[in-house]
Design goal:
four-stranded antiparallel β-sheet, 41% strand, globular, 4 strands
Length: 105
């Protein structure tokens, strides 16, 4: 069952965050984009701020990120951590080699 998460339009760099996720999702234009999702507390609920990082093809081979914070880090700190580890993690060879698109028969 999917749970609705309220959206927020603005965040501040110095506010505490619950976590940061980078994932690939289909954009309204139909093309796969990479999104940075930052979760922050709003009115007693966890709300999502969504930042479009551009086409997912620019991040070929880069693994998806999930950085929990549990209000220990600020938004800016989480973004810095994501920038630091985005390319240091192992390359996702299946994605980079496009093995999911190959017909192995």
């Amino acid at each position: 069952m999917n749970k609705l998460i309220p959206a927020t339009q603005t965040i501040c760099g110095n506010e505490k965050a619950v976590g940061l996720v980078e994932t690939n999702q289909r954009a309204p234009d139909g093309v796969m984009h990479r999104y940075q999702l930052i979760y922050v507390p709003r009115d007693g609920l966890i709300s999502e701020f969504r930042f479009d990082m551009g086409q997912a093809s620019k991040y070929k081979g880069v693994k998806l990120l999930n950085i929990p914070s549990l209000l220990e880090h600020t938004v800016d700190e989480l973004k810095d951590i994501a920038d630091e580890i985005r390319y240091e993690v192992e390359i996702d060879l299946k994605d980079w080699l496009q093995l999911d698109k190959m017909n192995l028969v």
